[in-house]
Design brief:
mainly alpha; 62% helix; globular
Length: 281
């Protein structure tokens, strides 16, 4: 009988090699983002805005609220494919694996069994998402319902090729459009996409490490709700989320832009918000 997530995991990487790969990816996106000082254009700016928004949806709306907490159901398969691809591009690993670890985080908040607690692995490893939790140590109870999602399982087992195809495809398609139609441009678009990842990774670092560091004064952690929503990649009010984890919204109004995105997608019949979970907190 299966006892852990390991049987479904990305087997070509050991836990340590996966950490090395993450470090390499973070170096890549930071180096690419720094080129903004030389090659910035309006294309770069608009790419940053678009990729920041959809990256925030993929991490906070899809991976976090849809897979981890089931407070949103994605009804459109094309949106689900894009959400998986953008979550991998965002540097969080795979949505399925992240969702299982996040459930452990809620169950074992800030203890030795919390996969990304700064109290267990240190502030900077938590901030930089360099978690060392072995996939073999993720009990199957935290994957309940996840492996029935065939699209998420597909990308879980193909994370590296998905990531490579994303960046190569983004560059060559954008460059093709520049050469033939005079719009976009491979380097400009990729720099904007890298800037969105860098902003998002540091935003999630604030949520993971700063919000859970008891040593840091509360007045430092408690950002203005609106500013905080955009600093932490659309995650809204983190304390509110821990108080009501099944609620699809982590704050009111613009303080939670991803909840507003979910409401827009629901109007377009792309998702369904689980308001029963919302009422149950």
């Amino acid at each position: 009988m299966l006892k852990s997530i390991s049987n479904f995991s990305w087997e070509e990487f050991s836990t340590r090699n996966n950490l090395y790969f993450r470090v390499a990816y973070y170096i890549f996106v930071h180096a690419l983002a720094l080129l903004v000082f030389k090659y910035a254009t309006l294309t770069t700016f608009f790419t940053f805005i678009l990729f920041w928004w959809f990256g925030a949806w993929a991490v906070s709306g899809y991976t976090h609220r849809t897979l981890s907490h089931k407070s949103i159901v994605v009804k459109n398969k094309y949106l689900e494919h894009l959400s998986n691809i953008f979550a991998i591009y965002a540097g969080i690993g795979t949505p399925l694996g992240w969702a299982a670890l996040h459930r452990m985080h809620h169950t074992h908040l800030d203890t030795e069994l919390d996969p990304h607690s700064p109290h267990r692995i240190g502030f900077w490893r938590s901030y930089l998402h360099l978690w060392d939790w072995r996939k073999e140590d993720v009990p199957l109870k935290y994957t309940a319902g996840l492996f029935r999602n065939r699209i998420a399982v597909y990308y879980h087992n193909r994370a590296l090729p998905t990531l490579l195809l994303f960046w190569f495809g983004l560059f060559f398609i954008s460059e093709f459009l520049k050469v033939n139609l005079g719009i976009l441009g491979g380097l400009e678009v990729c720099i904007g996409a890298a800037l969105a990842v860098v902003a998002g990774l540091h935003g999630m670092g604030v949520t993971n490490a700063v919000s859970h560091s008891h040593e840091i004064p509360k007045q430092v952690v408690s950002l203005d709700p609106i500013a905080g929503a955009f600093v932490n990649w659309g995650e809204g009010n983190h304390e509110y989320h821990h108080a009501k984890p099944m609620n699809y919204s982590f704050g009111d109004g613009i303080s939670d832009p991803i909840a507003r995105t979910a409401e827009l997608f629901e109007t377009l019949k792309l998702v369904q918000i689980n308001r029963t979970s919302e009422l149950n907190g």
